[in-house]
Design goal:
- The protein contains 3 helices and 10 strands, in the order αααββββββββββ.
- It has helices at residues 10-25, 32-42, 47-62; strands at 68-70, 73-79, 88-99, 103-105, 109-115, 123-124, 130-134, 138-140, 143-156, 161-162.
- Helix 1 runs antiparallel to helix 3 (47-62).
């Protein structure tokens, strides 16, 4: 897979990709079982992973993803929580070898980790390409190590609380 953007699918088609995914996980507990299911069903090497990864790379290239920058992190909330997305918000960050701001997940967080081609061993919180699910009430300082990755965040009801 190349980091060279393919013709981007656009924001509306990206919204539909996310809606299709969230339809599959709506109402599921955010726990280790969901983490395992996402990685087995839509993990690195799957068609869904490839679609989402290329859509994110294209969206960054077109400027509608990761359109803000702070502390060495490019980021942006592309969609607020809404019924069409089964009450998940969608954020994407572009990070390279750094830790982001500490925060808690009141309702949990689902992350899609997409290392870029020049650093395929990049990890997010020690996890390789694929999915990482944090349950309600968890907290972390999101960290990309061993390179650069895009990370897509799905937050139930868009809930996140940044902490000092």
């Amino acid at each position: 897979m190349s980091d060279t953007p393919t013709p981007a699918i656009g924001k509306a088609a990206f919204h539909q990709l996310i809606a299709d995914l969230t339809a599959e996980i709506a109402g599921q507990p955010l726990d280790a079982t969901l983490d395992q299911w996402l990685n087995a069903t839509h993990g690195a090497g799957s068609a869904r992973f490839a679609q989402l990864r290329q859509a994110c790379i294209g969206g960054v290239a077109e400027g509608w993803l990761c359109d803000r920058e702070g502390g060495g992190i490019k980021y942006g909330r592309v969609f607020k929580a809404e019924d069409a997305l089964h009450r998940f918000s969608v954020d994407v960050v572009d990070m390279q070898d750094l830790a982001g701001p500490h925060h808690t997940h009141p309702n949990g967080e689902i992350d899609l980790i997409m290392p870029l081609d020049d650093t395929p061993a990049a990890t997010f919180d020690g996890r390789p390409a694929g999915w990482c699910v944090y349950g309600p009430g968890t907290a972390h300082r999101p960290t990309v190590a061993q390179g650069r990755a895009l990370v897509l965040y799905l937050l139930p009801e868009g809930q996140i609380k940044f902490t000092p």
